[in-house]
Amino acid sequence: MEMPTPNATVLARKARLVERLQRVLPEDAVIHDEAETRAYECDALTAYKCPPMLAVLPASTQEVSDVLRICHEEGVPVVPRGSGTSLAGGALPTADCVILGVARMNDVLETDYANRIIRVQSGRTNLSVTGVVEEEDFFYAPDPSSQLACAIAGNVAMNSGGAHCLKYGVTTNNLLGVTMVMMDGTVVEIGGAHLDAGGLDLLGVICGSEGQLGVVTEATLRILRKPEGARPVLIAFDDNEVAGHCVSDIIKSGILPVAIEFMDTLCIQACENFAKAGYPDCHALLIVEVEGSEAEIDYQLSKIVEIAKRHNPVELRESQSADESAKIWLGRKSAFGAMGQMNDYMCLDGTIPVSSLPMVLRRIGELSEQYGLPVGNVFHAGDGNMHPLILFDANKPGDLELCEEFGAEILKLCVDAGGCLTGEHGVGVEKRDLMLHQYTAEDLEAQMAVKDVFDPAWLLNPAKVFPLSVTEARREAKIAAE
Amino acid sequence: MRPETEGQLAEIVAGLSEPVRIVGGGTRGVAGPGTELSVAGLSGIELYEPGALTLVAKAGTPVAEIEAALATEGQRLAFEPMDHRGLMGTDGAPTIGGVVAANISGPRRVQAGACRDFLLGVRYVDGMGQVIKNGGRVMKNVTGYDLVKLMAGSWGTLGVLTEVSLKVLPMAEAEETLLVAVDGTAQAVEAMSAALGSPFEVSGAAYDPGAGHVLLRVEGFAGSVAYRVEQLRGVVGGFGPVSMADNSAGLWRSIRDVTAFHGQDGDVWRISVKPSDAPALASQLGADGLLFDWGGGLIWALVPAGTDLRTKMGDVSGHMTLVRGAGQAKFQPEPAPVALISAQLRQRFDPRGLFNPGLMG
């Protein structure tokens, strides 16, 4: 992964920077020892590593503001970091950067059931937000797979999704307001406990901006009352295309399942070997989950079963109990682990129109043969968010590069089919250089204009989202200005 | 000026030397200086995939045409866009571009989300006359910055929309509305909060002070609706006598379109606050008419022309929009650092200040 050359002027300021930061933060919140900064050298995209110059762990909005103001004055790049679970390298450091970790900011500031909101500091983990309101039978809807570990700060930065967003939407649909610190230290309040923006929808563009517009320190989130119950049905087919048609027919029928998950042959076998979930021997597996009271669930599942039967499934397994539900989900939830046991893997997350599913799966199969690397497909079928997992051997010279090349082909295929490069993981460094396949230079210029407004010196989360070739002029102008 | 294609529109904008007032159907009462630039000529549904719940249409496509196409497949725009004609005293055909540009959402916003939550992609012409696209036509997309949300509700001030891509949802098989007789706004908001905080998926929660009742809508499959209505009776029964409305769809259309204020003199304000702040704020507005939607989070107020309602806001956070009336800022003034960001964004998207100048600040 090509990264900009570290700025020697910035590196030379390290001692002064440490001294200035130590004046505004507790001693243990400024990490400058090389052995310790190494802990921040990568996120969940572990193929790329680079220790930062420094790491800081502020505990309040004021401390974040102090840190950013100082870094702004010293011209030092800042990489914000939630829990470091990005699969796209969204928190990958540069050698001349300060990592700003929000892990110490994890307080719950306000819980308000009457108005159905919770306000938290952004370092709080996704699952622990639900943990706070669970006793009143409420929950926070977006549920990325990493929800046990991932922070709300990262969820906001990447506009994280999850398996249940067909019904509940992604982060941006559940975020009502933020307290954000701009790169120069200015603290702004955007949105709040009320709905919608009174002017331009700045919250909408902040969410998903991958930490490049500001550092979100507090968030007001929508919480929902838990449904009375939920149950899945497992539907097995011997053909991907038929499974795709079944998904489309379910959606057209007027039922809105809370999740429709899809797994292909390789994934099914891997999960079966790994988790012994009792999956049937088939080529395409759907897990469709619905919510409501027992009677409502029965009714919806009966309609889904009726639709599925028209497509001659190999097997239909309607869950009758919590145990059976857990078993149906067990394989799906261990899919990544199961694939990981087979080999190293790279997980993609392009999105496609549901109608192009058969074509895209066929083409991925052809590319897999061509590159000689196996691919398992597991994805959120209701919304077209694919997760092809390419298996490779990290110890075999050239295999990672081959895998990356293959991955890029798949993502381009998603775009060409009318979809996009990333549905929920974000661009980060991983897909940065593919952006010109989806957007024109003018389209990217419009996005970069937003960055110019929020962070004129381009110090926040550098070298992410936009191809280096496209940001070159801005980076050179910055160096020239110093 | 009434271009027929995106290319013609881009050419017109590139050649502009004076500000324009961007108009779709002209039903939402956008006033301002400049020649009218109509987008109505860019019309037609370009793609509709019921099985993928997505529809792409040119910005000037009449909302009625889109709703008719969706109805043939048993689908709809779930955010329930308001029709402003009765309130504003306008005629013409509301366009989808206008709905998006103004982020128009109706009663179902409280459950299903706003227009901006259903907007998957946009194409627009910026102030330099360039055609820009953002987002796409798939439901999950985090590729680059989300200018889609920024364009929704920007009232044309950042660019002229040429095409929008929307997520649509199935129509409900059945709907019912419970009427709860309540004693005052505070009790009404409590009843609505209780209903919205229940697991019974209330898709509309409004309070009509004139009628003295709270309206709670339940939609879905017939059996499920019947079940949830019974459960909700238990949830809200303690607030007052509960009865069933006999014209649910009609009632919600009149709440959506604020029919109570049609033909009445005075300014109309739309106020977004935290629901529990609504009762105290509403009592201080000196309004001639009030209507509460979104569980109390949206207040419609009819006040004597020229009233500066924003002085009544006090410490309450939220925003007030002057929907009908003149002589005051239409949109809530923003705190200085936020106003600066907004102004700079407008400057970058429309450096020559061509699009609806002054409308948003």
Structure summary:
The complex is a heterodimer of chains A (482) and B (361). Chain A has 482 residues and is an alpha+beta fold.
Provide a descriptive summary of the structure in words.
The complex is a heterodimer of chains A (482) and B (361). Chain A has 482 residues and is α+β, with helices and mostly antiparallel strands. Among the domains of chain A are: 108-225, Uridine Diphospho-n-acetylenolpyruvylglucosamine Reductase, domain 3 (2-Layer Sandwich); 230-335, Alpha-Beta Plaits, CATH 3.30.70; 343-432, Alpha-Beta Plaits (2-Layer Sandwich), CATH 3.30.70.2740. Chain A has helices at 8-12, 14-24, 34-37, 61-74, 126-133, 152-158, 165-168, 202-206, 240-252, 265-275, 294-309, 322-333, 335-342, 357-371, 399-416, 435-438, 441-454, 468-481, and strands at residues 30-31, 54-56, 78-81, 98-101, 108-112, 117-121, 138-139, 175-181, 187-191, 215-222, 224-225, 230-237, 259-264, 284-291, 315-318, 344-347, 375-380, 388-392. In chain A, a hairpin with a 7-residue loop joins strand 17 (375-380) and strand 18 (388-392). In chain A, helix 2 packs antiparallel against helix 4 (61-74) and helix 10 (265-275) packs across helix 13. The longest helix of chain A has 18 residues, at 399-416. Chain A is globular and about 70 Å long. The mean pLDDT of chain A is 94. Chain B has 361 residues and is α+β, with helices and mostly antiparallel strands. Chain B has three domains: 6-170, Uridine Diphospho-n-acetylenolpyruvylglucosamine Reductase, domain 3; 174-256, Alpha-Beta Plaits; 259-324, Alpha-Beta Plaits. Chain B contains twelve helices and 17 strands. Chain B has helices at 6-14, 63-72, 85-88, 96-101, 109-112, 115-118, 147-151, 185-196, 222-236, 248-256, 278-283, 336-349, and strands at residues 20-23, 35-38, 45-49, 54-58, 75-76, 119-125, 131-135, 160-167, 169-170, 174-181, 202-208, 213-220, 242-244, 267-273, 289-293, 298-303, 318-324. In chain B, the strands form five sheets. A five-stranded antiparallel sheet of chain B has the order 3-4-8-6-7. Chain B has a four-stranded antiparallel sheet with strand order 11-12-10-13, with helices on both faces. Chain B starts with 5 loop residues before the first helix and ends in a 12-residue tail after the last helix. The mean pLDDT of chain B is 97. The chains are: A alpha+beta (482), B alpha+beta (361).
